[in-house]
From TrEMBL:
It holds the Pfam family CT_C_D. One of its GO terms (molecular function) is ATP binding. It comes from Cerina litoralis. The keyword Nucleotide-binding applies. SUPFAM superfamilies: Cyclophilin-like, PH0987 N-terminal domain-like. It comes from the Bacteria. This is 5-oxoprolinase subunit PxpB.
Length: 246
């Protein structure tokens, strides 16, 4: 018996979009990840040039080279979804990432703390206390959408986005927090900076994090930030990675 109703839609000529109920829940994300793992083991996906993109409450199934026959694919997906219950979720990890919250980096820290009626110290304590689920990766290569933000830290995006946000900037927006993996425009409220590279195109796996993993931040000093930034640039920083039991 399937725990969730799904809707299957064409997504252009080369892709199919599978949608789950429009709620942000780990049970829905786990179901998506379980089905993603199931599809990876299906012969049709192993024979072609397929890409699977899970996020929040959807899964995009893309063929990079040939058009998808939607009616046939829809029928196959419905049958596969009914058979996925025996699939084990892929291993998840908790990644602990350092963040420097000095005002040099946390350029919106004072404004956000005032808006939320929190002291700067209380805001930082709340941000590092929580671990966050990676619900999606996108917008920029390696940009993680992290859910599970405490309600006390929920703050709207900036009314006017900045033209330039620094690489590694850690921000808040609505019910989410995240890290800018490279310099870009952006409208999130910046409260700190992570010195560790999140995305490296030169690596076999450019982004070390997967959807379904968790992130927890910990506070570091400016001196520690400078050290970790150098370690990250030369590839000797030791990432804190903890297995999450199923």
């Amino acid at each position: 018996m399937n725990p969730f109703p799904i809707v299957i839609k064409p997504y252009g000529a080369f892709a199919v979009l599978i949608e789950w109920p429009p709620r942000v829940e780990e049970s829905i994300l786990d179901d998506i990840l379980r089905f993603t793992e199931y599809l990876k083991n299906q012969r049709i996906l192993n024979e072609g040039d397929w890409e699977l993109v899970p996020a929040y409450n959807s899964l995009l199934v893309v063929n990079d080279k040939k058009q998808v026959e939607f009616k046939m694919m829809k029928s196959q997906i419905e049958n596969w979804y009914a058979s996925k219950d025996t699939v084990v979720l892929p291993q998840k990890y908790l990644w602990r990432l350092p963040v420097c919250y000095d005002e040099e980096f946390g350029i919106d820290l004072v404004e956000v703390s005032s808006t939320l009626r929190l002291s700067v110290g209380a805001l930082i304590d709340l941000h590092v206390k929580q671990s966050y689920t990676v619900y999606g990766i996108g917008f920029l290569p390696g940009f993680m959408y992290l859910g599970g933000l405490p309600k006390a830290l929920e703050v709207p995006r900036k009314a006017t986005p900045r033209q330039k946000v620094q690489k590694g900037a850690v921000g808040l927006a609505g019910k989410q927090t995240g890290i800018y993996p490279q310099e870009s425009p952006g409208g999130w409220n910046i409260i700190g900076n992570c010195p560790i590279p999140i995305f490296n195109v030169a690596l076999k796996d450019p982004c070390f994090v997967n959807v379904g993993d968790r992130i927890q931040f910990y506070k570091i000093s400016k001196a520690e930030y400078d050290l970790h930034r150098i370690e990250g640039e030369v590839g000797i920083y030791k990432m804190e990675k903890i297995k999450i039991d199923a």
